[in-house]
Specification:
By secondary structure, this protein is mostly helical. The protein contains 6 helices and 5 strands. Strand 1 and strand 2 form a beta hairpin.
């Protein structure tokens, strides 16, 4: 099942059409349950708009949309990392904006924080949560109880943002900017 809600059936090369149809029918309920869990749809593919902070906005004029998103991501993530890092006493070595297919952020052993540019599509509190999450890895480089306690102290109530990302993250990861929005 792709993040775009498309279902792909992979079978050996000489499988008959009849066998494929039978396989699909046998697994129909499972597929429908999986699709139902992907609801509600954010509608990121709406023509003529781009997304920032969970809201549709007018697309940039005269600029490549992908480049514009990366610039916005660097600006917004950099600002949050500076503010939250200062507040928490956690300073990354540097920040990188990437086009990851499966992750939102990472923290290297050298203190380099990397973030997926698609985070700027999400509501601002979700973006803030991911930045704080990665900043906390500067102190706790794992997902231990101590790490989650640190995140909770830094950002009480973060569970709502984490749940939002679990619920809608597949849509953000599937998003591909089009020219003009």
């Amino acid at each position: 099942m792709h993040p775009t809600r498309e279902v792909e059936v992979v079978v050996p090369p000489r499988t008959s059409r009849r066998a494929i149809e039978r396989l699909v029918e046998e697994h129909r309920e499972w597929v429908e349950r999986r699709l139902a869990r992907l609801e509600p749809v954010l509608g990121l593919d709406r023509p003529g708009v781009v997304w920032l902070g969970g809201e549709p906005v007018a697309p940039p004029v005269g600029m490549d949309v992908g480049r514009w998103y990366r610039r916005e991501a660097r600006r917004r993530i950099g600002s949050i990392a500076a503010w939250e890092g200062g507040r928490l006493g956690l300073r990354p070595q540097s920040l990188a904006i990437r086009d990851q297919r499966t992750r939102w952020g990472s923290c290297s052993s050298r203190g380099v924080l990397s973030f997926n540019w698609r985070l700027v599509l999400a509501p601002s509190p979700v973006l803030r949560y991911v930045v704080v999450h990665e900043l906390c890895h500067l102190r706790e480089p794992n997902h231990s109880r101590a790490f989650w306690s640190l995140v909770g102290d830094a950002l009480p109530g973060f569970e709502a943002e984490r749940a939002w990302l679990r619920r809608h993250g597949h849509e953000l990861l599937a998003y591909r900017p089009m020219a003009g929005g």
